[in-house]
Predict the 3D structure of the following.
Amino acid sequence: MFHFYLIDKMNEHKYIILIFIFYFTLRLINLTTLPIFNDEAIYLDWGWRMTHVPGNLYFSLYDGKQPLLMWIFGIFESFLPDPLFAGRLASVLAGSIALLGIYRICIQFFNKKIAYLATIFYIITPLFSFYDRQALMESSISAVNIWSCYFFLRFSGTPIKKYAIWIGAILGIGFFIKSSSLILIFTYLILGVVIFLIHFKTNKMYIKNILVAILVILMINMLLLINPSFWNTFYLNNRYSMSIMELLSLPLLKWLNNTVSFLEISLWHTTLLSILAVLGVVSTLKGSNRQSKYLASWMVITFLLLILLANTILPRYVVSFLPFISIFSAHFIYVVSARFQKIAFFVCCFAILTSFSLLIVQIFSPLNYFSQLSKVTKFSQRSDYVTAWTSGYGIENVRKFLSNESKNTRIIAAVRIDAGNPESSVFTYYARPQNIIPIYLDGNINREIEGFDCIKSSFPIYFISRDEQLANLNKFLTLIKKINKPEKKSFIGIYKVNSTCKGKILILDESSLNIN
């Protein structure tokens, strides 16, 4: 009997099942074609250390980053041999949770037609696809944004404790992932108080349940809040957001720049959807559906808070707050189709074809994708992902070289003490026990190295450099290979550490390298 029940359920939900198949196909295909980005390498390196090296559970706090997603990355890396695929798979799954949230909001507060169209818009939008396919925090925060809003909309209609607990739990998880989720907490508080003043003045349980949500947020983050390292490094978030003193100075020029940047990113990275979404918000505000108006308000408040609080606006900082445009784009097309069916059909097809075409280029030809985008916007991220030292291009060449050299013997892959490319990538790819042993070797940090004339080891030592940053080890190194990134603005150097010399010798033996 169970299989008949299962078949009935599949028939009932066949369209959303097909949509999810469509999602995973487009998110998983060529998932590692774009090489490992600087921050991905850092997070995956930290994730492994935090879950596999005793005493490093909160290692990311030293850079002011909350640890939850790093732990998840570390767990995924434990089960999958390719760490980049593992981290990106975690983000793809987080994106699927965001997609499900969009579907649930549409089903609950709009209708199935809008739900199907909104989910398709989300899947094919290049900006959402790009960050769903990166081992970064953005797809997770998108899921937090969507689901916290979903339960807030339920709460605004029926302000019971169950929904408040869900809101607190989701926002608490969000803050355990990334500090930018504070914007969502502020949105919840602002909109919650406004709705209370308009509709629930006499309902004391409403405001009590808002406080319940705050209490749940604090409980979930208790292990974080009692950790001294969190408070000692939390100020590092000032790199991304303005301080209270900066806000009190009323930085109008910065707010103007943030607004222009936000609009440019929204337009060029989501193609036609941002324009349709604006029209969708207008039509929503004219309607009678209270929850859809709250949804529009939630989205607009998060946009405003982002513009007011951010030090600078970049695609990565914006993407987690934009997914609702897929809903309002779909809503606008649905409304127009009631009176102008042919026009709505044409606009819908044009929006889908434009986004899908750019998405296909992104998946199958990343270099061409960045090149085309750079022609129309300064926020193409081409420098970060293609030409600058942060780019992962060249890392695969390093791996092939080291793999070839380690076929018959163990070798040492040394990097200077730093985070990013190629340093973190070396530790990310060679964290597991194997013939390639990653170590830090830095004459700038360990000044005693300067007093030696030679470095010797039982194994050949190769130094992997970021451009010409050789960590004050120049006299020990011989350049073997220079791997240029596209346009040759940056490169990765592979150096052999000289082992034939006279004088004072620094010996790197198995005990000093901690090799088992």
About this structure: Residues 83-109 form the longest helix (27 residues). The mean pLDDT is 91. The radius of gyration is 25 Å. The chain has 25 helices and seven strands.
